[in-house]
Amino acid sequence: MEGLGGDGASMASPVPQWGHNAWRLYQHYLDKATPHAVYRWIGTFFLVVIYCLRVYYIQGFYIISYGVGIYLLNLLIGFLSPLVDPELEVSDGPMLPTKGSDEFKPFIRRLPEFKFWYSTTKAFCIAFLMTFFSVFDVPVFWPILLCYWIVLFFLTMRRQISHMIKYKYIPLNIGKQRYGGKKSYASGSGSRGD
């Protein structure tokens, strides 16, 4: 009876602790990358190029690329859409102004930029890993998939742009005023002996 509750029972398995430490390290680096949007997107761009080169040289896995394209289109719609859609929901929270006399309310995305980047990067990582398994190489005639995706893209974007025009919002930061931080007077003024 003494051996049942001894030192061996209090010893936890190192596998859950290792997994927890790995997850914390991953989250740490993800948090450090959050303010560096340009560098994150450059890294994702290189990942996309590597994936495209792999698909091009293998001459296969077009169905995986089509699936990633549909997923990215869905992410893009979420990125361009407001958090509260005036057509679907009536909310007491911030809504888009519909008249010129309405109060300015900032555009709040349904899918924030960081989550858009993270989901895009994760999708291409998973798609890249899938290219190493021949079970995912389903033979398809890729020009049909490409034409269908282009048609789907234009129809979806036309609907999204008409929604943006109807409710008068611009989801991008193009042309909006940016405010800088406080300027230091010591760095701007020369020496007093001038």
UniProtKB/TrEMBL annotation:
<keyword id="KW-0812">Transmembrane</keyword>
<dbReference type="InterPro" id="IPR004932">
    <property type="entry name" value="Rer1"/>
</dbReference>
<feature type="transmembrane region" description="Helical">
    <location>
        <begin position="38"/>
        <end position="57"/>
    </location>
</feature>
<comment type="function">
    <text>Involved in the retrieval of endoplasmic reticulum membrane proteins from the early Golgi compartment.</text>
</comment>
<dbReference type="GO" id="GO:0000139">
    <property type="term" value="C:Golgi membrane"/>
</dbReference>
<dbReference type="Pfam" id="PF03248">
    <property type="entry name" value="Rer1"/>
</dbReference>
<dbReference type="GO" id="GO:0006890">
    <property type="term" value="P:retrograde vesicle-mediated transport, Golgi to endoplasmic reticulum"/>
</dbReference>
<keyword id="KW-1133">Transmembrane helix</keyword>
<keyword id="KW-0472">Membrane</keyword>
<comment type="similarity">
    <text>Belongs to the RER1 family.</text>
</comment>
<feature type="transmembrane region" description="Helical">
    <location>
        <begin position="63"/>
        <end position="84"/>
    </location>
</feature>
<protein>
    <recommendedName>
        <fullName>Protein RER1</fullName>
    </recommendedName>
</protein>
<dbReference type="GO" id="GO:0005783">
    <property type="term" value="C:endoplasmic reticulum"/>
</dbReference>
<feature type="transmembrane region" description="Helical">
    <location>
        <begin position="140"/>
        <end position="157"/>
    </location>
</feature>
<dbReference type="GO" id="GO:0006621">
    <property type="term" value="P:protein retention in ER lumen"/>
</dbReference>
